[in-house]
Amino acid sequence: NLSDKIDHNGLNEMFAKYGNILSCKVAMGDDGKSRGFGFVQFEKMEDADKAVTNMNGTVVGGKP
């Protein structure tokens, strides 16, 4: 779950330490507000695995 204050840049910053990011997107509703989740695509599968292992269960912006 992502705080509604997290944008594409914030999501990218959170995950960049795990590897090279090919794409990063926060899902937005028709009203222009965050839907509370996003997608990050890494260049390497092992970097994605590291991100999942390290970020799973992390509280981001007050939302667990």
From TrEMBL:
Q: Which SUPFAM superfamilies match?
A: RNA-binding domain, RBD
Gene3D superfamilies to which the protein is assigned, alphabetical: 3.30.70.330
Keyword entries, A-Z: RNA-binding
GO terms (molecular function) for this protein are: RNA binding
Reply yes or no: does the keyword Glycoprotein apply: no
Entry annotated with the keyword Cell division: no
Residue span(s) of domain RRM: 1-64
Q: Which PROSITE patterns match?
A: RRM (PS50102)
Q: Which InterPro entries has this protein been placed in?
A: Nucleotide-bd_a/b_plait_sf (IPR012677), RBD_domain_sf (IPR035979), RRM_dom (IPR000504), SLIRP/GR-RBP-like (IPR052462)
SMART domains xrefs: RRM (SM00360)
Top-level taxon in the UniProt lineage = Eukaryota
Q: What is this protein called?
A: RRM domain-containing protein
Organism equals: Nymphaea colorata
